[in-house]
Amino acid sequence: MQINQVKFSKLLTEEKVFNVFAENYTQSIILWYEFQRVWYHRAITTFNDVNKFFILEYFFKKTFSSYSEHFINKSFEEFYSQESLEIEKFNIIDLAKELNFSKETVRRKLMELEKAQIIIKDKKNIKINFGSFLTKTEAEVKGFARLVSLFTKILYEKKYLHKIFSEKEIELVIKENFTRYCLPFLEFQIAYSLRVRSVFKDAETWFIWNLLVYNQTLNLFKKYKNGENVDFHNFMKMLPNEHPGLNAMSISDLSGIPRPTVLRKLNLLIKDKAVVKSQKALYTLNEGKILKKVEPLRLANNKDLCSLITKILNFII
What we know:
The chain is mostly helical and 317 residues long. It is built from 14 helices and five strands. It has one domain (11-316).
């Protein structure tokens, strides 16, 4: 029997991947912002409540961690063919601590999830009822595969990889190893959300602010469409000067957040001097304390993202 050796010399390092990410920042980050926009849009339009989504993320992460411990992997189709997902018993205090919610918030949201029959308690078993809310994450898988494929193109040009992997190839690998990949992904997303919520009052406010970042990144990318690129370190210095901004209706459409809520959150951001409003009612980022607070978090989030991408690429190669 032939045993394949692991060629450690060919494995990518997180440092290499992050350096590629930082040097090609606008090109890479646009795909990531679009992925996150789709991810949080799903949360808001499905539950009308991001906190419930975080709680379900916690349950999925906990379940996939148990799968990993027992060497279980479910493909994309296997996972979504289930009518429900049995979850292990959980402790409200642990759940609240990991998500940085109050125990009262967790109890209230769990009761709402039960009332909506998304969580079902049957004697000693606790299940997540897929039929009540879950649709396949096709767009999210495709979006993430697109981002990873871009990395393989740049890494190939740098001679760190022997070939470019297409979006379809990466999508296939992710789908075949769906729950295996979901575990580090959900760990990343929870850590990511905790960091941004440490700066903003709530996830919705951050999402609205980040859509302005996304829009101004697109403006910046168009300016450098001839192949030039803005690196990681200069990005935030240049971003506040990019126009035009977004109006409240566009933000509502892109986020799934109702327009009255968008306007209320924008007014709070203006009060905090994080956002400015033009005479044409277009909103853009403002230089100030929010950008300074976000900067160290941006570094941590992007390094964690590159760590996740490195794990996926090393599995593929």
